[in-house]
Amino acid sequence: MEKRVLVLNLDHSPVAVVSAQKAIVLTLLEKATMLSTYELLQIRTISRSFEYPAVIRLNQYKSIPYRGVMLNRANLFRRDNGECQYCGSVKHLTIDHVVPRSKGGKTSWTNLVTACNRCNVNKGNKTPEEAGMPLKILPFKPTLSYFLADYAERHAEEWLPFLNVKVVPG
C-alpha cells in the first residue's frame, strides 16, 4: 500500500491528503516544504533518490473554505468506532436519534449515534434516560483533524505531532 502524505497550510492547518508523487512535485517546484518523512522509505528514480514525505507544508497560505465533515452513515460509524454506543456490539448496526425526532430531536452530529438493531428497538421512542440505556460516549461533531488523527494512529504516526487533536478512545 502506498503511504499518503498530509498537506498543511502555511498556518499548519490540515488541508489535504495526497500521494507521495504529488508531494514531491510540490516540494521540487518549491510550493511546499517537507516537514516530516517516513523513515526507512525512499522514492527512487533512475538517477536520484528522494526521502519519502509524510507531512508537507504549503509555502503560501491558501484560502480554503471550510466544508466540515459530511454527516453520513459511514462517517457516523467511523466516529463511533463501528460499535453500538449503548452496548458495544459491532453487529447489525443502525443509526439512532438520541432524542427521537418525534420529540423534536434533530438529525445532527450531536443527536445521532451508532446503535445495534436490538438496542435501537429496545430504546424505541424514548431518550436514553427514559429507556435506562446510558450512552458510552456523548455524540459530538468531529473535525477533519479528528478523522486524520484517527487515520494517522493506524497508518501514519508521523502525522500525529502536526494534528492538534485528541482522539476519543474507542
From TrEMBL:
SMART domains: HNHc. Gene3D superfamilies: 1.10.30.50. Keywords: Endonuclease, Hydrolase, Nuclease. One of its GO terms (molecular function) is endonuclease activity. The keyword Hydrolase applies. CDD domains: HNHc. Residues 71-121 form the HNH nuclease domain. The keyword Transcription regulation does not apply. This is HNH endonuclease. It comes from Algoriphagus marincola. The lineage of its organism: Bacteria, Pseudomonadati, Bacteroidota, Cytophagia, Cytophagales.
